[in-house]
Amino acid sequence: MSCDHGPFVSSRASRLRHLIKATGGLLAFALAASLWLGGVARAQDTQIIYPGSMAVTGFSGTIIPNFDEGLPPGVDPVDETFIDTTRATLRVFDVSHLGGPASGQLVFTPPPFEVTAGQIGQVFGLAYDDGVRDGVPSGIPNLYAAATSLHGIRIVTPDADSDGRPERQRRGTAGATFMEGQFGTQNGGGPGTIWKIDGITGQVAKFADIDTNSGPGIGNLTFDPNHRQFFASDLDTGLIHRIDANGRSIDTFDHGVAGRPAHGLAPVADDGVVMDIQGAAFDTEDPETWGYTQDERRVWAVSYHGGRLYYSVGEKSEIWSVGIARDGSFAGDPRWELTVKADKDYAVTDIAFDNSGFMYLAQRGPVENRYDYSQFADSGKGEVIRYWHENPDDPATESLWVEVPQEYAVGFPQGNRQSAGGLDLQYGYDADGNLDTSVCTQTLVNTGDKLRDNPTLAEQLSAGGPLAVHGVQITPKDLVKPANVPPFGSWFVDFDGYFEDPEVEGHVGDVAVWHPCEGRADYYEEIPGGYLPPFYPPDFPPPGNLPPCLDVEDVQYYCTPSGLEADLYLHDHAGFGGDSIKAQSRTPGVGVTSPMSHAPGTPYTIGITGHYPGDRVDVGLCFYRKSDKDKGGYYPCCKMTLPLRTPAVSCER
Asked: What is the mean pLDDT of the chain?
């Protein structure tokens, strides 16, 4: 298999160490310099994002500036090694044709679109918007990337030895600044910056700035298409920032203070500690000195789904959610969802939902920062798992979600737990590895380290390409363990096309796929039955002069393994005192179901099947008191017909 990848070969620190060991002199440096290819991120005249496009973040690599002038004897070359600002920290891959059935092989894609560290610095979190431009849908989204410390923190002081290079520093010291390529400072960026990459032109611009972030960066970000706004988690303060479509910060949600008490936990306010790279306590190799907020309030991943913002907290990760109100604001109803059950208490740095209601979580190992750039995370034990709602809910369990998640085999090393902390859902693929955009969220993509590195399987794996792959694994989402162990049912894509660095860890970041969904929803036969004749309370006005008995304040849609569900927020306008509903479809060919019971204070949930996404569905509601129904016979029922405009996406099994 060819290993010629053109202009997107990049360098990693292990190559430098290997060459120095092998030759022990300046010849090694000359060889190393000849391997670095100074490619510049390119913009394009045509669009850069298509359905199925896969964006990936990762460390941009290193370089020794002015290497051709040589190094003085006795100088440690690592002290003169800096972030390569000409290399990419973000790539957008075309993975529409994988070249054949999955067999654990490396896939060689067309050269990706690239954005360099010089433009945006090191980034992790990714999100797409909805492609609305000047109020008009274009079908081509923009891509957003958030500054990070997950690929290390590097500081320098001005050149003191007249070699044309600044001086690297391990500890905080007077006059220290962030190294070029850390946060895109050439374009006005900082540790709280969110960058916007135009989906048509590839133009890069600063979108938003959390200017109170001192260095820890942003955990992740997500887009809310219902209100056209973003949410970003701040690792410095623990706040979740709400940002409008123009990049303006609107308000924040403080999980430590407003969230924890909802689950009986004591509030924890931010300790106010910041990253001070000029202070003596700061140590580039000790993340405890980086100014992260306390673990109890540290929000990593964020994901908007079904009218709620889901987010992960802490190293022993908990998943929480908070409602988003009709006006887009935080609803003030934080809810503990579950405590992650995994072998290691690692942070969940990405959350995604498919169109069947499964929630997918990706762990990333604890933050590391080796001075030689070799390791940014303690890799090799991070899991990719998925949860789903109990159906029916088990009252004996605290969570609405199943107690034990399903796990995916990630990478070939022993244990198959090579997660680097990023994941998303992709369309389906046919038997030949070609993208099938008619099948929504059928494939899981996740980032990982050392994905094809297993000496025991080396002979078998060698037929599928190089072994030192740090990038993305692409797997049909149904292949949960014990299936796909080892993962020969997956495809693999390397982040930078360089395959001689098996020892680096944490050099890959997040992944995001643009996968707008269309198609017909699953069809189910309507459950037979109808309403009992309605009877109104005696104090109601006579027929012909009836007021509306219900106000519908809001409707929120989400997908479950059973299909589309809608949460109805109802107001008892007439004071009827109902506490239950029965729902029936008034649209031919469409099935509507309602639950047998309803918990006070929660929305009423109905299931909708057999519709075309985006169609109007008329739902007849019978609003009644359960105590009346339990008496038997006829019971008072307040009726109304509710027209629902279903979302233009398909909920598939």
From this structure: 86
Q: Which residues contact 160 (CB under 8 A, 6 or more apart)?
A: 167
Average pLDDT over residues 59-67: 92
Q: Which residue has the higher pLDDT, 80 or 29?
A: 80
Peptide bond preceding 486: is omega within 30 degrees of 0, i.e. cis? yes
What average pLDDT does the segment 209-219 reach?
97
Q: How far is CA 409 from CA 316, 360, 415, 418, in A?
A: 21, 14, 8, 9
And the tokens for 352? 């995604």
Torsion sign (Cα): 93, 99, 104, 107 = negative
The first and second tokens of residue 372, run together, are: 């030689």
For residues 68 and 28, what is the distance between their CA atoms, to the nearest angstrom? 12
* Rg (alpha carbons) of the chain, rounded to whole number: 27
Separation CA 329–CA 251 (nearest Å): 8
Q: Give this prediction's pTM.
A: 0.80
Nearest to 406 by CA among 485, 469, 337: 485
The rounded percent of the chain whose pLDDT value lies above 70 is 87
User: In 10 A of CB 43, how many CB atoms?
Assistant: 14
Q: What is the C-alpha separation between 439 and 408, in angstroms, rounded?
A: 21
Between residues 269 and 22, the one the model is more confident about: 269
Could you give the CA distance from residue 42 to residue 201 in angstroms, rounded to a whole number?
10
- Of 256, 225, 99, nearest to 514 by C-alpha is 225
> Which residues are registered as beta bridge partners of 82?
63
**SS3 at position 217:** strand
Task: Give buried/exposed letters for 524-543 (b at 16+ CB in 10 A, else e).
Answer: eebeeeeeeeeebeeebeee
Q: How far, in Å, CA of 591 to CA of 583, rounded? A: 10
DSSP classification of residue 259 = I
Tokens read off for 571: 């107001």
Angle at 290 between CA 284 and CA 293, to 5 degrees: 160
**Per-position DSSP letters for 512-525, written without gaps between them:** EE-----SPPP--P
Beta carbons of 377 and 507 less than 8 angstroms apart: no
Q: What is the pLDDT of residue 549?
A: 66
Q: Say which DSSP state 125 is in.
A: E
Q: What is the 3-state secondary structure (H, E, C) of 49-112?
A: CCCCCEEEEECCCEECCCHHHCCCCCCCHHHHCEECCCCEEEEEECCCECCCCCCCCECCCCCC
Asked if 587 and 614 touch (Cβ cutoff 8 Å), the reply is no
pLDDT in the model for residue 450: 96
Nearest Cα to Cα of residue 426 among 19, 70, 55, 168: 55
Say what percent of the chain tops pLDDT 90. 64
Separation between Cα atoms, residue 477 and residue 444, nearest integer Å:
5
Instruction: Tell me which residue of 390, 318, 334, 351 sits closest to 125, measured CA to CA.
Output: 351
Mean predicted confidence (pLDDT) in 43-55: 83
How many Å apart are CA 84 and CA 75, to the nearest integer? 20
Q: Say how many residues make up the chain.
A: 653
Average pLDDT over residues 224-229: 92
pLDDT at 653: 45
Report angle CA 525, 526, 527 to the nearest 5 degrees: 115
Report the C-alpha gap between 353 and 288 in whole angstroms: 32
- Cα 625 to Cα 165, 537, 597: the distances in Å are 77, 11, 11
Amino acid making up residue 596: M
- The predicted structure's pLDDT at residue 574: 64
Task: Copy the structure tokens of residue 253.
Answer: 């949600």
**Average pLDDT rounded to a whole number, residues 248-271:** 98
Q: Which of 155, 116, 107 is nearest to 5 (CA)?
A: 107
